[in-house]
Design brief:
This protein has 162 residues and is an all-alpha fold. The chain is built from eight helices and no strands. α3 packs parallel to α5, α3 packs across α8 and α4 runs antiparallel to α5. The longest helix has 27 residues.
Length: 162
């Protein structure tokens, strides 16, 4: 393995780690409901950009780490992230060619699917109550996706991640 390939993998894992930290970072209660799903959006980007390398297994491992860090039921976010990344990889060729506003809408839909799966599993396990606040992160993800895409693409090109 060349040094450049190792550096590329390290850069990707650093961005995923930053996404994980951003996901668990404490926020004021006023904006907590609007917290974007940073980790999910970073995984979506890398699975669209490099689907052969960052895929369902990556999403499952990071979802499991997020469950552990949040103290949630183990495997809920792993299942939801794996499903979302499966859908993203299934349509990665189309998503790459969409304009950014259409990509943002698709990412919003993927985030909605993620939250619905998490809600559904928590409802079955614990009897969770449905709130419309469930979809607020999808709206913030819609707004933030173009910037995440732009930043991660620049990182990918600067460090020649393949």
């Amino acid at each position: 393995m060349s040094l450049q390939a190792a550096n590329g993998r390290l850069i990707v894992w650093v961005t995923l780690f930053i996404g994980l930290l951003s996901q668990i970072m404490p926020l004021p209660s006023i904006v907590e409901a609007w917290r974007p799903d940073w980790l999910l959006m970073v995984i979506i980007y890398w699975s669209i950009a490099l689907p052969h390398r960052y895929n369902i297994l990556t999403a499952w491992v990071l979802g499991l780490a997020l469950d552990i860090l949040l103290g949630a039921t183990l495997g809920v976010r792993s299942l939801a992230m794996s499903l979302v990344i499966y859908i993203a990889i299934l349509h990665c060729q189309r998503l790459r060619n969409f304009p950014k506003w259409q990509q943002s809408l698709v990412v919003m839909l993927l985030i909605c699917i993620y939250h619905l799966v998490v809600y559904w599993v928590e409802f079955v396990m614990d009897g969770a109550v449905f709130h419309t606040d469930l979809f607020l992160p999808a709206i913030s993800g819609l707004v933030i996706w173009p910037w995440i895409f732009w930043i991660l693409r620049r990182v990918r090109r600067h460090y020649k991640v393949r």
